[in-house]
Amino acid sequence: MRITTLSENTAGKRPKGLLAEYGLSILVETDEQKILFDTGQNISVVHNAPLLGIDLRDLDVIVLSHGHYDHTGGLKQVLEETGEIEVIAHPDIFKRRYAKHENSKTPIGIPYAKTELEDAGAKFRFSEEPTTIGDITITGKVERRTDFEKIDATLYVEEGDELKEDELLDDQALVIKTDRGLFVILGCAHRGMINTIEQAKRITGEDKIYGVIGGTHLVAADKLQMEETVKALKAYKIQRIGVSHCTGPQASARLADEFGDRFFYNNAGSAIELE
Ligand SMILES: [Fe+2]
Ligand SMILES: [Fe+2]
Question: What is the pTM of this model?
Answer without folding.
Answer: 0.98
